[in-house]
Amino acid sequence: MGGTITESGIHHHVNYLDYQVWQYMNKLKEMGVENNTIFIFCADNGTSGYGKGSPVSQKGTHVPLIIYTPGMNMTKKGLQDTLVNMSDMLPTIADIAKVKIPDSYEVNGESLLPFLTTNKPKHREWIYGYHKDMQIIRGELVLKDGKNDWWDVSENPDDLISFKKIKDWNEVSKAHRKERDALNKILPTFNLHATAHDASINRTETPEPLNVIARKE
């Protein structure tokens, strides 16, 4: 159907992605550049319906990030519990290539290279994403999603979405409340939907879900 070469279903998609990555790896070896190549694998948003179609918690924004660098001496290997934003990819690649980004070019991301190659314990304090007039922001302790609900993310459940919703801020720690206040100060900086992103759209339109950022592990 639709000219695809596999059957429908997420398992078939994952198998095909695995096949494609295998082809890339073989090609790099064939060209003799495997040890001089950094391979970055990442998704842009969660699957349709479950992820991309949901502004709840981090369903639409928690996606995989794999960095394969056989020729680089990385201090971090295997699963890493750290916050990473899609906007970090530009400064990371520029850092690796030793390319200076012009000062006039606005960069919201941070290079991941220092975290990968030194003993730096974590990469960044918060991550952000938006879709139209909905915003999501997350720190190490709390997350505010596209429905303006707050979640306690200080402990990760196995499915990485079944967090405890914060209904009473007196039931969480002072550190949770402090991080909430810090994140709330950041949000207005990026809340440009009405003036920049979709200024001509009817403001009564039902907003679509988030699909931009990611916490990678």
Secondary-structure blueprint:
Blueprint: H1 10-31, E1 39-42, E2 65-68, H2 89-97, H3 113-117, E3 127-131, E4 134-138, E5 142-144, E6 150-152, E7 164-165, H4 174-190, H5 193-197
Antiparallel strand pairs: 1-2, 3-4, 4-5, 5-6, 6-7
Characterise the protein shown here.
With 217 residues, the protein is of the alpha+beta class. The protein contains five helices and seven strands; from the N terminus they run αββααβββββαα. The strands form two sheets. The protein has a five-stranded antiparallel β-sheet, covered by helices on one side. A hairpin with a 2-residue loop joins strand 3 and strand 4 (134-138). The chain is globular and about 60 Å long.
> Which overall shape is indicated by the principal axes computed on the Cα atoms?
globular
What is the mean predicted local confidence, pLDDT?
84
Number of strands: 7
Mind describing the biggest β-sheet? 5 strands, antiparallel
Compute the separation of the termini in Å: 33 Å
Spatial order of the strands forming the largest sheet:
3-4-5-6-7
How large, in whole angstroms, is the Cα Rg? 19 Å
Determine the structural class based on helices, strands and strand pairing.
alpha+beta
